[in-house]
Amino acid sequence: MKVWYLICIAVFLNSCGNQGEQNASNSNIDEGELILTDADQSKEANRSEALPILDFTELEEKYLTPASSEKTYVLNFWATWCKPCVKELPYFERLRATYASQIEVVLVSLDFPENIDKQVVPFIAKHNLLSTIVLLDDPDANTWIPKVDKSWSGAIPATLIIKGDRKEFYEQSFTYTELEKEVQSIL
Amino acid sequence: MKTQFFKFIVPMMVLSLLVSCQDNAKENATVAENVQPEPVASVAEKSPIANATGYTIGDAAADINLKDVDGSMVSFNDYPEAKGFVVIFTCNTCPFAVASEDRIIALDQKYKSKGYPVIAINPNDPEVQPDDTYELMQAKARDKGFTFPYLYDASNTVYAKYGATKTPHVYLLQKEDGQNIVKYIGAIDDNVRNGDQVKEQFLANAIDQLLAGEEVSVKETKAIGCSVKQKKA
């Protein structure tokens, strides 16, 4: 009886270890973690079909020179492989959910275009990201980085908050509290 | 009593092990895909202030004394024949750093003999970025056949002294009156992602101008890079 329990524990521990390894090396979607409403699911489906790929001119026209001075745009420059970026993505998602009527959160991925299908789209689905997401494909970063902000060295994560003529730029990682505080100061 | 122990206590233990295992799995799912889960300790880099410090063009760079992947200590004084140095902050796994590896090797091979050797420094704290341990740096240098020193900054201070915020981040130095003067800061070229589509060789052009005795025309450039991984100050 005693031996049986010990074996049982050993088996559980072993399978647990394997699971951890699989998660670390496998970027496939874990269906069990996604609990989606119907609306979210349809958005998810659309997202997978097309991740808008923009050059900087297009990004600038669409989000950096907003026509409306009522809405606040929060642009976050990130990539799927950037650990501090991934860590703060939930805060941007929470910001989007909390201030849906006042803010548009735009997650600007700097992933390499050749990784869209195998890395970026599965990542977006896996983490159930519902913010606006675009991929910035513009290799001439020396030209466009200073147009985002003169002080930006080019390191990610970086965040730009825009409302009308006001622009605030942050080359840093955020906690939710820090992010919300900055956004509230510009709303 | 003994039976009770096995009937209730042991299953409870197994259950709690399983639960903690699931928590682990969830944590794994929230971090970047191709890296190991990081410790909960904060990773964020507060850089707006750090940006204001560090070297600017014309500053004299302090000497370094850092451990190379072969175990030897490297400083600028070890290169009495050099005219200057191509100091590149880079790391093991940042995709932009990896995409630049072949170009860094080519630069070293071209300019070392002309007096401007590459000195690569890994600015990341391996406690924050586990992919950047000294041992993995050794493996990287061996596997890629690095022709230049790849230095480990155990003090985690050199990057800040220079003002490096990301990998790759280049500082071109020229010896003048016994000092190493910063002549160029920024990117290797205008296409960090794809070496085949480069139009402007910023760094090579700057070294060529120094070799010709001219002033560097493009002194500072920008490129996207991975933020330096250090514990929050």
Major beta sheet summary of chain B: 8 strands, mixed
Which spans of chain A have pLDDT < 50 for at least 5 consecutive residues? 6-37, 44-48
Order of helices and strands of chain A: HHEHEHEHEHEEEH
Helix/strand-derived class of chain A?
alpha/beta
Distance between the termini of chain A: 66 Å
Using DSSP, what is the number of strands of chain A?
7
Low-confidence stretches of chain B: 13-31, 33-51
- The count of DSSP E runs of length 2 or more, i.e. the number of strands of chain B, is 10
Radius of gyration of chain A: 20 Å
Q: Report mean pLDDT of chain B, rounded to a whole number.
A: 84
- Average the pLDDT over all residues of chain A and give the rounded result: 81
Strand content of chain B: 15-25%
Largest interface: A-B, 52 and 52 residues
Please describe the biggest sheet of chain A, giving its number of strands, its sense, and whether it closes into a barrel.
6 strands, mixed
Give me the side-by-side strand order of the main sheet of chain A: 1-4-3-2-6-7
Q: Spell out the helices and strands of chain B N to C.
A: HHEEEEHEHEHEEEHE
What structural class do the secondary elements of chain B suggest? alpha+beta
Assembly state of the chains shown? heterodimer
